[in-house]
Amino acid sequence: MKHLSRKQIFAVAVVGFIIMAVVFLYSCRYRFYQYFPAREYREFVVDDGLLVERGSKTAYSGFVRDQTQDEMIVRRYKNGLPDGAGVIYRKGLIAEVGHWQQGLRNGKFMLFSDNGTLLETAEFAADKRNGASREYFADGSLRVKGGYLNDRK
């Protein structure tokens, strides 16, 4: 049996640390959305269904933040439509995470309680529930598991 040198042990430890860091950051990626550079929603208007800068006809692409006293919404737009992940925070905690494509809900949506417990997950395609859906009790235990096809159970 061959023994590893100190350099090899160090290299393995560094790779392990990097993998753990990447996994950690990925698992809590939505917590960081609130810190992304984003334009304020009040800088825009909706014109013909598209988000455009005030005084412009150009559809906006980038992150937008809309904030009230208790709630913050951070959403990515592409060509004036929600496109990519969007996160809603209430009192500093994630309340909802959803994915959009060309202005339509598309992908996984998750709803959370006021204390951060996952309450519901649902899959969407073309703005309709399609796929697995789960609801949870406030203690985190599974309440209902099912599926949807074109918004029908």
Could you explain the architecture of this structure?
The structure is a single chain. The protein is mainly beta. The protein contains one helix and twelve strands. The longest helix has 22 residues, at 6-27. The protein starts with 5 loop residues before the first helix and ends in a 5-residue tail after the last strand.
Mean pLDDT, to the nearest integer, reads: 91
Per the principal axes of the C-alpha atoms, what is the gross shape? Answer: extended
**Biggest sheet record:** 10 strands, mixed
Radius of gyration: 20 Å
- Uncertain runs are none
SSE arrangement, N to C:
HEEEEEEEEEEEE
Q: Structural class per helix/strand content?
A: mainly beta
Q: How much strand content do the residues show?
A: over 45%
First and last CA, distance = 58 Å
Q: Approximately how much helix is present in the residues?
A: 10-25%
Q: Count of DSSP helices?
A: 1
Q: How many β-strand stretches?
A: 12
